[in-house]
Specification:
By secondary structure, the protein is of the alpha/beta class. The chain has a single domain, classed as Rossmann fold (3-Layer(aba) Sandwich). It is built from ten helices and ten strands. Strands 6-7-8-3-9-10 form a six-stranded mixed sheet, sandwiched between helices. A four-stranded antiparallel sheet has the order 2-1-4-5, with helices on one face. A hairpin with a 2-residue loop joins strand 9 and strand 10. The chain is globular. 44% of the residues are buried.
Amino acid sequence: MTEPEPAATASADGASAGVSISGLHKSYGDNEVLKGISMTVRPGEVVCLIGASGSGKSTLLRCVNRLEDPNAGTITVGSFETTHPDVDLDAMRRHIGMVFQQFNLFPHLSVLENCTITPRRVLKQATSEAEAEAMVQLRRVGLEDFAQRRPDQLSGGQQQRVAIARALTMRPQLMLFDEPTSALDPETVGDVLAIMRQLAEAGMTMLVVTHEMGFAREVADRVVFMDKGLVVEEGPAADVIGNPQQPRTQDFLRRVLNPTGVDLEA
């Protein structure tokens, strides 16, 4: 398979990559986590995956980036069929940025070094070039003044913003977010969501696993509700979250939006 020409982020020149998933299955032993998932994410679209823990959302995301190997089905990201046995995974991953629940920063490196290590080693950029791009992305997330600090000198929200900047230094065409605010203090969640909102507004293709229903309603073009390894309901965010049609979706949202069960209108 041929490698596409390197492209900048959507915010830089409009380049963006869509995702196509067909018949995706993933099992761990006898536990079938994904049961024939099919869905698409159009270039420049933001799709939020919602659902209870264990529904397969994070596994689906990890399959897209081939951090997990599917048992069956096909996944295409841009011009890469990521499930093809001959795909160049290193080349494919250069076009995909991923942000995890935990920040996965190197504790012994500065913020700047965390953001330059991959461009220098993978893209073979000169240190000066990598540092210049890193500062652009750190400025984008509001942390350019923290470039020389170590991760343990930052708050959780700041570390997650560094993780986003680090992913953006590779100029990805697709961003994957796996519950990026789940490990954060409530006061810092908004800062991370604001950065994600800016990326969405700039036209970045994004596939987001989240429990932040307000973010999904406001930012997502579409919401996909998953349960027990299946897509139960999908559609515009306002419809799926505001007026869900499937009983399982209704029950999930009722529990998430009103966890105490108290009638707020009483």
